[in-house]
# Entry
Amino acid sequence: SQTIHQWPATLVQPVGSPLSLECTVEGTSNPNLYWYRQAAGRGLQLLFYSVGIGQISSEVPQNLSASRPQDRQFILSSKKLLLSDSGFYLCAIGGLEGGYTFGSGTRLTVV
Amino acid sequence: DQQVKQNSPSLSVQEGRISILNCDYTNSMFDYFLWYKKYPAEGPTFLISISSIKDKNEDGRFTVFLNKSAKHLSLHIVPSQPGDSAVYFCAASDGSGGGADGLTFGKGTHLIIQP
# Structure
């Protein structure tokens, strides 16, 4: 079965600092991978998706970026965090008929 | 422009009664719909789904109804239990083959089950 590992669970970072969130998956090969963000009053917002190594599509223009250096690794980064980057970040694996399996999430607070 | 709308941010229901969560969508290309349940500080978990070729899908206490003409779906939970207290997200896909461009989620409804 598919499993997702996401870390860290919580993170407090100052404004202007860099960010790196990592997501790794097991039990599947060549998955579609997604980064979502849940922010207050915004629901779940798709940030990036990837259909393969090195292939990244961005849904929302912002100061975040994503990379997929390996088949089962998906990384969310920022060079300089903004206060508005605070939120709950979720990695997900695409499944059959559009369903997802989500990771446990990272709570990011930018101070 | 929000394509999936959950107009009730919260809903309070007495334990044992029926909970009805509503969702509306605007994109007529959506052909697969899902409900996710989310507890605080956890990732959402899949609950139930329905294809646009059906109007009802049932799984235990959970039933999802789809009204394509009204572009409306609802999730019924009967009977409601305290463990059902969570945020419920409605989601839609316009590629039933596992569209790589992702699901579109509503903003969620916080269901509170009162003892």
Notes: The interface with chain A takes residues 6, 32, 34, 36, 41-46, 49, 51, 89, 91, 93, 95-108 of chain B (CB under 8 Å). Chain B has a mean pLDDT of 91.
